[in-house]
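**User:**
If convenient, please work through this fold.
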Amino acid sequence: MTLAHDIAGDGPCVVLLHSSVCDRRMWDPQWGLLVDAGFRVIRPDFRGYGETPPPTSGYDEARDIRDLLDLLGIESTALVGSSFGGRVAQEFAARWPSRVTRLLLLCPATRLLEPSDDLRSFGAAEDALLEVGDIEGAVDLNVRTWVGPAADESTRELVARMQRHAFEVQLAAPDVAADREDFELRHVNAPTLVISGAHDLEGMRTAAAFLAEHISGAAHQQLDWAGHLPSIEDPGRLNPVLLDFLGESASR
């Protein structure tokens, strides 16, 4: 299955991987900016998000991204991943390191750590709401948990719409288990920046610090204003960091 995606621009490639609270619309504040800066930009929807149907058999998100790049004839790219998208990005970079030119992880998750107490508590609360059919309650929980204080009301409403759509699609689909391969961070060789938000859950900040420590040469930057989704909470402050890391000179 080909992931629904947008592609625009010329120059070095950048793939934007969305959070599981969102879909590819979360990158609206970066889309035109990166195209104008001289990049070829791709933003897909993972299975069960946005315009991509849910899975019907075993699946692997990193392999889905590889297959999309193969279809588009793209040999190498920078990867920018937010939260769950950061988890997929780190796995892709470890499994196919020659295909990744730069790796930017925004408040990333990881499969390499056990969930922290605060993440377990969130998951239990979300499960309880969904088990009784309270989708709106689960949407509200996600917005309150994952959208930081810098975000305005229109951003919170967008996140709510994206999360609501994902719940509606995924809850109506058969339960299909993922079939993901193991990976080792020591294989990542792209220049890497890991960003965390001071207002994010402790478990997510721990994951960011872990990844920065175990990816060779990685830098770690904590944003004192950010929650879990800095790219949409305050694009005006996040975008210069993004451009500086990717290389704004692409358009020069």
Remarks:
- Strands lie at 5-8, 13-17, 40-44, 77-82, 100-106, 192-197, 219-223.
